[in-house]
Amino acid sequence: MTQVPDYPIEVELPNIRRFADGTDGIPYVHTFDSGKSGPHVMISAITHGNEICGAIIVKQLLEIGLRPSVGRLTLAFANVDAFHSFDASSPDNSRFVDQDLNRVWTSELLGDLSQDSSELRRARVLRPVIDSVDLLLDLHSMHERSDPLIVAGPLDKGVELGRKVGAPATIIRDAGHSDGRRMRDYDGFGDLNSEKNALLVECGQHWEALAPVVARDCSARFLVASGCCTEQDLPSDWIQASAAATRVVSVTQAVVAQSMNFRFAANFTGLETFKKAGQVIAWNDDEPVVTPYDNCVLVMPSLRQLKPGVTVVRLGQLVDAQ
What we know:
6 helices; 25% strand
C-alpha cells in the first residue's frame, strides 16, 4: 500500500469563541451592510473542522474591522462543532461530527426534517444567509501537501471568476461529488442562468504554514474582485505576487477504491501531470489504473480515508493555460 505521510501541525489553532455572538442571531456568522447598493459577498471558513487556515483568515478579517465599501459582507465560521473538537493528537478526526457538511447542499435534503445530524442542523441555520449571497468564497485545505488550487465548479462563470481572482494559478473545473452537493454548487451558484457565483479554494495541506498565506492572498483578491472592498481597505501585505499564468484542468472522472487493496504507483500528492495516455498511476484490486488521455492531471490523490467506495483521486485534462 502507498505510504500515507504524517504532516506536522505548523499553525496554531485560532480561538474563535469571542465571535460566537454573530449578527442577525446566527452564531459565528457576521454580516456587515455598507448601506450602498452592491453584491452580498461571503467568505466562509471551516466547512471542515480540521481545515484551520480559513478560520485564521476570517478571524483576522473580523479583528481588523473590515467593512464593505458597497453591498454587504458576511464572514462566517461554518462547522464550529467539528472545529471545537480538534485534537492535535488525531487531527483528521475533526473533519466533521456526523457527516460531511460539504455534501448536504440540496434544497430537498435541507428541507427534509426527518433527516438529522449536527451538520444538517448547522446547514439549516446557515441557509437563510447563503440564500441571499451573490458571491461566495469557501476556504478549504487538503489532506496532502500539494500546490493550492481553485475549484470552480462545472460552469464557465466559475472559471471566469477564478481567472478574475487570479490565484491560486490552477483552476479545477468539475461537477462535484457523487455522494452529495457542495456549498459552492448550491442553488444559484450552480445554475447557468443565475448571476450568483462561488469558488472553493484549496489552500494547501491542512496544517502547513503556507496555507494561511494562500488563504489570505486569495481572500483579499476575492474581496477586491467582488467590488465590495478595495486594496486600500486591506492590509498592504495580504496580496502576494501574481502567478505568471492560470491554467484550467477539467475533471473527467473519479477513481473509486474497489476495496482496501488500492495503491498508487508512487507517493502522489496532487497536480502531477502525465504527458501520455496509458501510463499506470495505480492498482485497484490489482487492476492497473491508467491515464485515459494525454496531459492527464491527478487532482487531490489521497489514501487517508481509504475504504471501498471512496474516491481516491480524480483525473483531469489540462485544457488551457493563460
